[in-house]
Fold this sequence. Notes:
Number of domains of chain A: 1
Oligomer: homodimer
Largest interface: A-B, 31 and 31 residues
Largest sheet of chain A: 11 strands, mixed
Helix content of chain A: 10-25%
Shape of chain A: globular
Number of strands of chain A: 22
Low-confidence stretches of chain A: none
Order of helices and strands of chain A: HEEEEEEEEEEEEEEEEEEEEEEHH
Strand content of chain A: over 45%
Distance between the termini of chain A: 32 Å
Amino acid sequence: MLDNTEKQLLQQIAGISGFQPGSAFNLRANGSGVERHSTPQVTIRQKSDKPGIDIFVAPHTEGEQVHIPVIITESGVNDLVYNDFYIGEGAQVEIIAGCGIHNDGCDTSQHDGIHTFHIGKQAHVVYTEKHYGEGNGEGGRILNPTTNIYMEEGSYAQMDMSQIKGVDSTKRITYAKLGKDAKLVINEKLLTHGRQFAHSDVEVDLDGENSALQIVSRSVGKDDSVQVFHPIARGNNACRAHVQCDSILMGNAKISSIPEIAANHVDAQVVHEAAIGKINSDQLIKLQTFGLSEEEAEAVIVDGFLR
Amino acid sequence: MLDNTEKQLLQQIAGISGFQPGSAFNLRANGSGVERHSTPQVTIRQKSDKPGIDIFVAPHTEGEQVHIPVIITESGVNDLVYNDFYIGEGAQVEIIAGCGIHNDGCDTSQHDGIHTFHIGKQAHVVYTEKHYGEGNGEGGRILNPTTNIYMEEGSYAQMDMSQIKGVDSTKRITYAKLGKDAKLVINEKLLTHGRQFAHSDVEVDLDGENSALQIVSRSVGKDDSVQVFHPIARGNNACRAHVQCDSILMGNAKISSIPEIAANHVDAQVVHEAAIGKINSDQLIKLQTFGLSEEEAEAVIVDGFLR
C-alpha cells in the first residue's frame, strides 16, 4: 500500500518501513489518517472537533511503543494537526513520532503539529521526534512543531527532538511545566543548510519542589542558513536546571542564542552554557592525517556532534 | 573644604579622601563642579552645551591617573551629566570614577552619568567605577550609568564596574564597538539588598578582525532584591568573546539572566556561561567548623566572590 518514496520517508523519520502490527500505530499522510490501530493498553482515537488524535496510555502500562509518523509526499499540502497524549499514572511508554516531507513540486508543503502531553504521576515517557525534508521541487518544506508538556509528581520525560535535514523553515515551540519531583530531559538536534531558517523556543517552568530539567541542544549551521535559539528556564521552587547549547558554524551561516534563566526561589539552581564556533581545527587536522579529505573530516565531526 | 560625610563617600568610591594634586581631577558634588584641574597630558574642560566634562588624554601619555568622582549628600538632587573621554593614540591611562550618594532625607537623589569613551589606536585604558549609597533617610538612592565605548585598532580597555551597596535602583546600560585587534574586558560586580532593583544591559559588537571580549559578571542578591542581566555579544568578524555571569542568591531575592550571543561570521567564537544558585553548602560548613557563625561564614564567601 505504501510506495517506495513513502517507505523511505518512514525509514528516515521512524526507522520503520511500514505498519507495526504489534504496537499502537497511527500513520497520517498528506493531511489525513491512513492507518490506525490500538492495543489493550494504548487507545488511539480520532478527535471529533478538530484534526488529530487522542492517545490514551493506561495506568501502569509497561514497555509499550506507540508509533505516530506523519508523511507528506504531495506539493502544496498545508496540514495542521492536534495530538494529545494522556499518559496514565505509573505507565512506561515509548512514543516514536516524526514528520517527513518529500516535495518534488513548486508549492510549499507544510505540517504544523501541536502536541500536548499530560504525564501522570510516576509515569515514564521517552518521546522521539525526527523531522526531515527531501525532494527536488522548488516548493518549500516547512515544519512548525509545538510541544506542550505537563508533568505530574514524580514523572519523567525524555524528549529527543531532531531536524535531520531538508527542512526549509521551522519554528519550534516547546513549553513544559514540572510538578514535584518531576524530571524533564530535552535533547534537541538541528542541522540547517542552504538558505534554511530555524527558530527554537523552549520555555520551562520548574514549579515543583525538587523538580529537575536538563536541556542539551546541539546544532550545525551550514551554507547561508540562520538559526535562533531562545531557551527559558525558570526555577520557581527548590529545583535544578541545566541548559547547554552548542553550535557549529560553517560557511556563511549565522547562529544566535538568547537563553533566559531565572531563579525565583533561594533553593533554585539554574545553569546555562552556550558556545558557538567553527569546527575545532585540531580535530580536522588529525582526521586529515588519517587520509580523509577536509570535507570528509568535517562530515565525520558533524555526524559525531549530532549523533 | 570637604566635610566628614563627603570625605567618607570619596573614600568608599575612589579610595581617596580629597583632591589629588598630582593628577587630573574633577569633583562634582550635588549637581555642580566643585574642583577641577588638568595636567600637561590630561586636559579636563567643562562642556559648554550641556552639563559634564570633556577629558582629553594626549597621544602617548604614560602612566597618568584621572580622578572624576561624583558625590551627592543632599536629598532631592536629580543630576544628569555627560562625560566624554578622548584617549589619544598609544596613550596609557587609568581613570577612577565613581558615585556616592548619602541621603538622609525623604526625597529621592539620583545621578545619571552618560560616559562615552573614544579610545584611539593602541591606547590602553583601565577604568574603575564604584557606585555606593548610604544614609538613613527614606529618600531613594538611584544611579543610572550609561557607558559607550568605541575602540580603535589595537586598543585595550578594562572596565571594572561595581555597585558596592546601598543603591535602591539602578539601570546600567553599556555599549561597546570593537575595531580590529581591539580587546575589551568588563568586570561587573553587583550587590543588592533590601528591596533594591538592578538591571544591567551590556551590548558589544565585535566588528574588527581578531577583536576580543571578556565579560565577567558576579552578583549577589540578598533579602527581597531583584536583579536582571541582559548581556549581548555579537561576533561580526573573526573574533573571540567569552561572557560569564555568576550569581549568588540569598533570602527571597530573584535573579534572571537573559544573555544573547550571536555568531555572524564563520570565524567568530562566542561562549556564554551563567549560573545562579545559593552559596555552596560545603563551603559554609567548612567555614563554620573553623568557628564562624553561619552569618559570618556567608559574609566571608560573599566578600570573596565579589572581591
